[in-house]
Amino acid sequence: MTDVTDDTVLIETDGCTGLITLNRPQALNALTHPMVLRIGEALTAWEDDPAVCQVLLRGAGERGLCAGGDIRAIHADAKAGTTGSLDFWRDEYRLNARIARYPKPYVALMDGIVMGGGVGLSAHGGVRVVTERSRVAMPETGIGFVPDVGGTYLLSRAPGELGTHLALTGTAVGAGDALLCGLADHYLPSGWLEEFTWELAKAPVAEVLPKFHGATVPEAPLAADREWIDHCYAADTVEEIHKRLLESGLAAAREASQLLHAKSPTSLKVTLAALRRARELDSLERVLEQEYRVSAAALSTPDLVEGIRAQVIDKDRRPRWSPAALFQVRQASVDRHFAPLGEDRELTFPPSGAGRG
């Protein structure tokens, strides 16, 4: 059991709704291991409670739902050569899968910043609400990591190659593009969320949503970029993607190539391989099993420690990747991320589990 005095996640009921509030606003509600366990306990308690008809996830503060996992803790773990992060990821990925198949409506308010682990807590839910303030991203390649928490499942199933573009560049998208890419279902202005939450206390979400219509959904800028994105990112290698972006002659494509240039070369190659493999896997659970292998391998790579140092610890924004160039990344280094961990170390789910279609 988790510590009941821990207030980093607030668990309560309001009418027929179970409320989960991520409560670390000073850290943009970054997710810790105890928070994951606490959310899991709440879902267990509510699953068979007839008084609870649905679950609502939200974030404390005005800045966002959740900026991701507590990467300072992951940095310390990787630097020390310990494996606490593996225990965190195991429980986090199990929670992601549980959210996807939860038997009651799971409503996520994806207001403000929703990144990394925040996507895992929200985008697998049955009712995903974005606002004009939403900024949704899987930015892992910028810290020497690879999209996880089912991110490669979601992005590999986005229209065309939009998900490949978002995964490799780490670009944050607004409400319109989140809807386009299948990361969200509904748009509500942020000013409506308080009343929306109040209405959920009184009625099931299927009855409440029709009352909140008429808002103009923000544009989806990526829709206009589909032609060059689909062409460039359909390439089989990151090198070829980079080449096509540069040769396209489009300013937006050149900007994307510059973003790729700043990312970890190893992370880029592993991410592309993970996305392509995820497309062939038949459920979220199978993808999460793959992601666990990838994350475990990444924990022992120099780029994860260096990326977090540059972006979060020292904030000099000048990571020294190793190797420093795409052509220096050997295929064996990529393949290592997908190698079996050994029966006693794998993350496994029952064969019958299924994620979002």
Automatic annotation (TrEMBL):
Reaction catalysed by this enzyme: 3-hydroxy-2-methylpropanoyl-CoA + H2O = 3-hydroxy-2-methylpropanoate + CoA + H(+)
Protein name, entry field: 3-hydroxyisobutyryl-CoA hydrolase
UniProt source species: Streptomyces katrae
Listed NCBIfam families: PRK05617.1 (NF004127)
Residue ranges occupied by any Enoyl-CoA hydratase/isomerase domain in the UniProt entry: 18-338
EC number in record: 3.1.2.4
SUPFAM superfamilies per the UniProt record, alphabetical: ClpP/crotonase
Alphabetical list of CDD domains matching this protein: crotonase-like
Keyword set includes Protein biosynthesis: no
Keywords: Hydrolase
Domain of life, per lineage: Bacteria
